[in-house]
Amino acid sequence: MQDLHVSCSLGPFCFSFGFGFHSWHLCLSSMRIFNMLQVPPYERPALSKGFLLPEAPARLPSFHTCVGANEERLTLKWYKEHGIELVLNTRVKSADVRRKTLITAMGETISYKILIIATGARALKLEEFGVEGSNAENVCYLRDLNDATRLVEVMQSRMGGNAVVIGGGYIGMECAASLVINGLKVTMVFPEAHCMARLFTPKIAEFYESYYEAKGVRFVKGNVLTSFENDSEGKVKGVILKDGTRLPADLVVVGIGIRPNTELFGGQLTLEKGGIKVNARMQTPSNASVYAIGDVATFPVKLFGSNRRLEHVDSARRSSRHAVSAILSPDKTGEFDYLPFFYSRVFALSWQFYGDNVGEVVHFGDFAGGRFGAYWVDNGRLVGSFYEGGNREEYAAIAEATRVRPEVVDLDELGRLGLEFAFRFARKDLEDPLPPPEVVVPVTASQGGDTSSSIVVAGRPVYGWHASAGVLVAASIAGLAYWYGWRRRRW
């Protein structure tokens, strides 16, 4: 095994990204892992999907790390079998990248040769926007296992009641679907003109909003929460909006974004676009011994020709693999060439997006039938693709077309061709094919229902190939530092 000292800061947060270890765990024998969690690392996508289902909900150990990528379930038994001592409920409270040391909350000093920062991000709180009272018993966030468990408890105690969802992004849309399936009356509140404003066009958003409304969801757009109305026990019974509107609320779910966890490295590393700036090897230019991956990393995206910080499991998985490869096999590892990818599944809907949503947009397909898409064309080239209701081959086709960035001469023709245009660029012999968009991983009832990225479809779990193994890389990388630091002190 290479004489490699790797560590990761485990701040007081849960991590927001994941990746498949593949063969990397072969390098991680005879070590200790320390982890701020009270359970072994798990996959985050389950929390806003299968975990919230009223029937056969996902529960640990069914979504421990790597399951969603059809890999091994990393339970306590797995760590033991691989010679890894998993030490839970431990975190790093400070880091000194110049001296290459970390200090845990217990006061232990850990030395490293290479540091991989995998601290992810934390949920934004209402208090950061001047709204007090989100510590009420029936106000919930959704970022970690404790949040999800609390949300389920509150939701089950208020069946048939009124739920208000603050935010119209991923968390808001996915939680709203689950709340409806659990029998609550749901109102979504967000300041934008339509849902998923960072990605959806007005035409695309209209489709999803109409679908949600048919399920009973009410939308209040262009408005924000300003205060809560509480009962005598301090529980929220209503929310007050900026325009004075009062909405009855037995449950409030807040999903207003995340903030990267960079505090441990403030003033030590270069920050850009909210994250830690790295090069195409995921290495920080300000310190060659430090790498950053996942939600906390701002890295070069060739397709965009600029640095971006991407908040999604796929980016985290691939950037993690690339960083490890760059460390262990620097001569065989080139620049990170990533095709941005986002997806979601709610109710009976399923969409995927690749690339960037800039330039002119061209819609195509059957919106009434729920099989439609959009292309984005910038400077005469295709830079982004979206499709709802596709199959594996169709998603792979739009992904490859976006990767190729073909020239587009006639926008009207592009709209007429629709998926046919993408299939012109699909290849069967990709050296690095995209993961399949859907993989079903069977799980027995005794394992607690579905796996990591199960989704809500007509009240039943459906499994997706993506799963956020967020804490695994943080815990495992940190374990290297712990073990090596312990070994060096012994020596």
Automatic annotation (TrEMBL):
Can you list the GO cellular component terms from the UniProt entry? cytoplasm
**Is Iron among this UniProt entry's keywords?**
no
Name of the featured protein:
monodehydroascorbate reductase (NADH)
Q: Which organism was this protein described from?
A: Acorus calamus
**First-level EC class:** oxidoreductase
- State the needed cofactors, names only: FAD
Q: Where is the FAD/NAD(P)-binding domain?
A: 39-318
What domain of life does the UniProt record list for this protein's source?
A: Eukaryota
Which family would the database say this protein is a member of?
Belongs to the FAD-dependent oxidoreductase family.
Catalytic reaction equation(s): 2 monodehydro-L-ascorbate radical + NADH + H(+) = 2 L-ascorbate + NAD(+)
Entry keyword set: FAD, Flavoprotein, Membrane, NAD, Oxidoreductase, Redox-active center, Transmembrane, Transmembrane helix
Q: Which Gene3D superfamilies match?
A: 3.30.390.30, FAD/NAD(P)-binding domain
PANTHER family membership: APOPTOSIS-INDUCING FACTOR 1 (PTHR43557), RIESKE DOMAIN-CONTAINING PROTEIN-RELATED (PTHR43557:SF2)
Any one GO MF annotation of this record:
monodehydroascorbate reductase (NADH) activity
Documented EC number(s): 1.6.5.4
* InterPro entries per UniProt: FAD-oxidoreductase/Apoptosis (IPR050446), FAD/NAD-bd_sf (IPR036188), FAD/NAD-binding_dom (IPR023753), FAD/NAD-linked_Rdtase_dimer_sf (IPR016156), MDHAR3-like_C (IPR048618)
TM spans, by residue?
Answer: 463-485
**For the Monodehydroascorbate reductase 3-like C-terminal domain, which residue ranges apply?**
339-422
